[in-house]
Task: structure prediction
Amino acid sequence: MSEKESLNTDILIIGCGIAGASTALEAAKSGLRVIVVTKNSNLEESNTYYAQGGIVSLGHDDHPELLKDDIIQAGDGINNPGAVEILASEGKKAVEDILIKELKIPFARSSPDSLDYAQEAGHSRRRILHIKDTTGKTIEERFIRALKKYSNVTLLPEYTAVDLLTVPHHSKNPTFYYKEPQCIGAYVLDNKSSRVNTIFAHNTILATGGCGTVYLYTSNPMGAIGDGYAMAYKAGARLVNMEYIQFHPTSLFHRDADGFLISETVRGEGARLKTKEGQTFMEKYNRERELAPRDEVARAIYEEMTNSNSSYVYLDLASYAKVDIKKRFPNIYRTCLKYGIDITKEAIPVVPAAHYCCGGILVDEWGRSSLKSLFAVGEVSCTGVHGANRLASTSLLEGLVWGTRASKYIASHFNPAVSYKSSDIHEWYYPEKGEEVDLALINQDWISIRSTMWNYAGIIRTEKRLERARADLDYLRHRIEKFYKEVRLDAKVVGLKHGIQVALLITYAALGNPVSLGSHYLLD
Result:
């Protein structure tokens, strides 16, 4: 887009992981005009791309009712029953029709005629389809390849969503205040030119992923700062369950590893957790040991680290592996070896890391939010599937199912009429003079946010810690807001503004919930 250009489309999708890509693919097949924006230069960059373990389907001796039971047990019983029913009943067909038949995803097979199903913590059956340990990478690449074939799909990498465009808030017409609030698109920043452009859309879909990088240790890519949560909150959409932040028990502990995830499937294939002295410990916390729900395993590791004043524990696959390690986990093997760890001969140093937000923008069975014409799919949404704690490998399936459902709903209810004129909508305001961005200030603010969230609003919480987090983050927010108004806008500044808002959303939600449940664990 050129300077100050505006675009019009039927569907604007912000984000391009499995949720955004499946939404775009289904919309493209229905003939609707689609624009997909992503802040990354690489279209594939997303949480999906780094998903190792796999995607839930139904195994050989499996049934939807068994899957439902496992999801609800992992979620501590506060799941949305209707959403769990949709995932369990529609998931297998979506995987078969879209991933296997349409995109030709080469899932691993135990024989030429039989898919290979892995098992992960919390699952009562082997039901995880995988491509060794690079499942998400393959799925994401196939989706992008498919989308590029459609002339009615416009892919815009290196565009950062700044704010959702809503009426009456962004309207010059005062009579709009008597109408129902509605999302009509978004202001997006061209990362290259640093100009903000307007995209008008009949329907806007947030598929921006999660917010793991507001924490000091995370398995998420660095772009997962929760942009969608912040924009939806500012626009007035309803958010719920933001206190339920799931920590993955095992990310590689190494100063240069940048949160590399050690898949839960490693424990499913026999690996045991050990102290630095070589003693197993999960039997002290749960009879399922390493296959206990994620929140329990993460807390157990945290307790062992605290009690021994250690920065990590060990995950020993070499001594217990039921599979050929190099063949089953080639990416994990190669990555660890790069850091001097041979997982076929020695244990892996690991630490828990922020992994998944079980809450988000409240949506219904079609992905509709409380704000008219705004949808949310994938991790940024809260369908209620996950309750207080996500069952392993259900997130990719949720993104696939709800992305497809959202587009089907839009296509069947599409109305090309608009109730506003683009000339009635404010253009983005540019300060005449903006200061150069000082990266040292941005970096220090992020250190403050991430350290505060890790220490005070992390795996184990107390009221005093959360109160300290709220005070520190509120003070920091005022500084960042002032900074935001004074400097020249770029993607890093937008990200910082969104990040502090998300950190506060999590903290306030945690303070408002006195019940310790699932991934919201209160020591008090």
Q: What stands out?
A: Residues 251-353 form a domain with the Flavocytochrome C3; Chain A, domain 1 fold (CATH 3.90.700.10). The longest strand covers residues 195-206. The CA atoms of residues 418 and 433 lie 35 Å apart. The radius of gyration is 22 Å.
